[in-house]
């Protein structure tokens, strides 16, 4: 099977997983860098992740221009292109509006890892506010100026919140990005519950670093791969191990 065919099939599965895990509803999207051309990325035409088929996957330049495929692209494709442009290490990006995360984009209280499996989201999750550089907008990332501003705020991190809107996560692989997107929602949900009872003990930066180092050395059947196999079944696909 060609690298591009394999990549498209995995990207379709990733979209179905984020839908099955309720990270994305009608909105949100998952992309991956083109496996053979780092100056391009793969992303569906504009439709809900749960509905996406291989024929929906299009190819874009990092500036968001259509390079292959047909259909009306997502308005917010600039999120993806700008992150691939600024981060050569990033191979996949998930943008979502998952519900437990949104409160942390508006309350001035930081979203931070509280549970070991959530260390992947990173020790520091900033909030991007388009009001700072663009004034009143519709809050969407609708051009490369806004995309690059978001990518700059993300910096070398894994996750960023977007004020009054949602979040974006970047991964060194498609499986890592999907894992981080799911765990960002899991952590937000747990943190909201824990904080209702008072001050929370968060993971320390050192603990986060050790957990992530172990995850990054995970072999098949461990870490991101074990989660991927579980989510495959949840989303109605056969496991591939
Ligand atoms: Mn959005």
Please explain how this structure is put together:
The protein is an alpha+beta fold and 241 residues long. The two termini are 17 Å apart. The model has no long low-confidence stretch (mean pLDDT 97). Helix 1 packs parallel to helix 5 (174-195) and helix 2 crosses helix 4 (144-154). Helices cover 37% and strands 15% of the residues. A hairpin with a 3-residue loop joins strand 7 and strand 8 (166-171). The protein has a single domain (3-234), classed as 3-Layer(aba) Sandwich (L-fuculose-1-phosphate Aldolase), CATH 3.40.225. It is built from seven helices and eight strands. The structure holds manganese (II) ion (MN). Manganese (II) ion is lined by residues 27, 76, 95, 97, 165-166. The site of manganese (II) ion has 6 residues, from loops.
Largest sheet: 8 strands, mixed
Provide the residue-averaged pLDDT.
97
CATH architecture label: 3-Layer(aba) Sandwich
Name the CATH homologous superfamily.
Answer: Class II aldolase/adducin N-terminal domain
What is the CA-based Rg, rounded?
A: 17 Å
Q: How many structural domains can be distinguished in the coordinates?
A: 1
Give the strand order, joined by hyphens, for the main sheet.
4-3-2-1-5-8-7-6
- Model regions low in confidence, pLDDT < 50 over at least 5 residues: none
The number of helical segments is: 7
Please write the string of helix (H) and strand (E) elements.
Answer: HEEEEHEEHHEEHHH
Main structural class: alpha+beta
User: DSSP strand (E) fraction?
Assistant: 5-15%
CATH topology tier name: L-fuculose-1-phosphate Aldolase
Name every ligand kind in the structure. Answer: manganese (II) ion
């Amino acid at each position: 099977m060609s690298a591009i065919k394999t990549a498209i099939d995995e990207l379709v599965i990733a979209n179905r997983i984020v839908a099955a895990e309720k990270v994305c509803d009608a909105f949100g999207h998952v992309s991956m860098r083109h496996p053979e051309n780092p100056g391009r990325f793969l992303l569906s035409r504009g439709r809900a992740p749960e509905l996406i088929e291989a024929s929906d996957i299009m190819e874009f330049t990092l500036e968001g221009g259509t390079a292959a495929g047909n259909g009306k692209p997502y308005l917010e494709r600039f999120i993806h292109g700008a992150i691939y442009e600024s981060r050569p290490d990033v191979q996949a990006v998930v943008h979502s509006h998952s519900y437990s995360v949104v409160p942390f984009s508006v309350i001035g209280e930081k979203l931070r890892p509280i549970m070991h499996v959530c260390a992947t989201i990173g020790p520091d999750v900033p909030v991007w506010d388009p009001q700072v550089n663009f004034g009143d907008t519709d809050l969407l990332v609708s051009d490369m100026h806004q995309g690059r501003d978001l990518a700059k705020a993300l910096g070398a991190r894994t996750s960023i919140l977007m004020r009054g809107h949602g979040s974006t996560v970047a991964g060194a692989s498609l499986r890592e990005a999907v894992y981080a997107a799911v765990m960002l929602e899991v952590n937000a949900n747990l943190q909201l519950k824990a904080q209702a009872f008072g001050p929370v003990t968060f993971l320390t930066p050192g603990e986060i670093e050790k957990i992530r180092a172990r995850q990054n050395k995970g072999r098949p059947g461990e870490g991101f791969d074990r989660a991927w196999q579980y989510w495959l079944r949840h989303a109605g696909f056969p496991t591939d191990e």
